[in-house]
Structures are given as structure tokens and as C-alpha cells.
Amino acid sequence: MSGASRASLAAGVRPAPCPRDRGAVTVEAATALGAVVLVLAAALSAVTAVLGQLHCTDAAREAARLVARGESERAREAVDRIAPSGARLTVLVSGDTAQVEVTADPPGGFLPGIHLRADAYAVLEPTAADAYPPSTGQAAAG
Q1: Which chain regions cross the lipid bilayer (predicted)?
Q2: What's the CA gap between 142 and 55, in Å, rounded?
Q3: Buried b / exposed e across 42-57, counting CB within 10 Å, b at 16+?
Q4: What are the tens digits of pLDDT across the range 51-103?
């Protein structure tokens, strides 16, 4: 660096920018903003998937309780009301127990390959056990 250049920098005078550098900060900011939006969308999708899983768990628990009481139709209504839209209910009655499975796709559909699933088990009440054939099991999907 020459003595004149040092003197001009010390005086607060900046050299003229290179014409090729114009807009470089704008491009970097646009790229960073796009990355921030992508990370935010992924985080929001993950949060909605976790909430959907919690809803499936609640729906499976409620459906198992209703099936144990002999109210299979109300179990389907509960799953439709509690679980994410498009959730599927599977009920398997074997002996004096009921196994319920609720499956769904995550809300929003932004997470391909992720499937929500929750299981619940319940012992049939004596009055409900008469509604299901003994030891043959009953499976239903909805």
C-alpha cells in the first residue's frame, strides 16, 4: 500500500468500489432470507406433525375407551372429531381386549414419508363383551 493510500484511509476517504461488487450484498441477503424461510417452514411443519401425533394419541385413547364400552360407532365419530382430517381407525377385538389403531398423514402435507400412528388398548366391559363374537376377533377400518 502506498503512502498516499494510507493517508487517504486514515482521513476516512474510501477508495471507489469495483463495479463488479455492486449488488453483492443484495444477493447475499436474498439467499440468507430464502434459507431462513425454508428453516422456518420446516420447523412449523415439524411442530404441526408433533401436534398431529398428539391428536392421534388422544383419538386412539378415546376410541379404545368407547369400544370397551361397546360403542364402536361413537368411537369412529370421536376419531373423526379429534384426530387430524383423513385419519383411519382400525379396531381389533380379541377375547376380552380391544386394540385400537389410529393412523393419519401429518397436517399440511409438507413432510413426505412421515406417517402418524397411535395405538391404545382396553379391556372390554362385561356388557360390551357380548357385542363381539368370542375369540374370533373383529377388525374394522374406517
Answers
A1: 29-51
A2: 17
A3: eeebeebbeebbebbb
A4: 999 999 999 999 999 999 999 999 999 999 999 999 999 999 988 899 999 99
